[in-house]
Design goal:
The protein has one helix and nine strands. By secondary structure, it is mainly beta. An eight-stranded mixed beta barrel has the order 1-2-3-8-6-5-4-9. A hairpin with an 8-residue loop joins strand 4 and strand 5. It is globular. The mean pLDDT is 97.
């Protein structure tokens, strides 16, 4: 069973299995005016190639209108630039989406 921890302070998403970090990915997060929400969420839907600015994959969170997705602007990873979503490199989000099922727990911490 996997879970995800998103640490906004170090711009990383951590994939956890059996209490241990098994993968770490660099991310982009929400800018000051549209900050990424903190709290406990779950992945509620997944879609490959959603189009627009969402890159190669979209994983929607239980907080409506927020998700973990790829990007068509990879140079912005590692910065606070989004409208609140978690941006990942396209290869990373596709790998992550292949590992985690709908219902996976996502903790976002400051």
């Amino acid at each position: 069973m996997y879970s995800i921890i998103i640490d906004l302070s170090d711009f990383h998403l951590y994939l956890i299995q059996d209490g241990k970090v098994v993968r770490g990915y660099p991310i982009g997060v929400g800018k000051l005016a549209t900050q990424t929400p903190h709290g406990q969420f779950t992945i509620v839907n997944k879609q490959a190639n959603p189009g627009g600015p969402y890159g190669a994959f979209w994983m929607g969170l239980s907080k409506p209108h927020y998700g973990i997705h790829g990007t068509n602007e990879p140079w912005l990873i590692g910065q606070a630039v989004s409208h609140g979503c978690i941006r990942m490199y396209n290869d990373d989000v596709v790998e992550l989406a292949g590992l985690v099922p709908i219902g996976t727990s996502v903790t976002i911490r400051p």
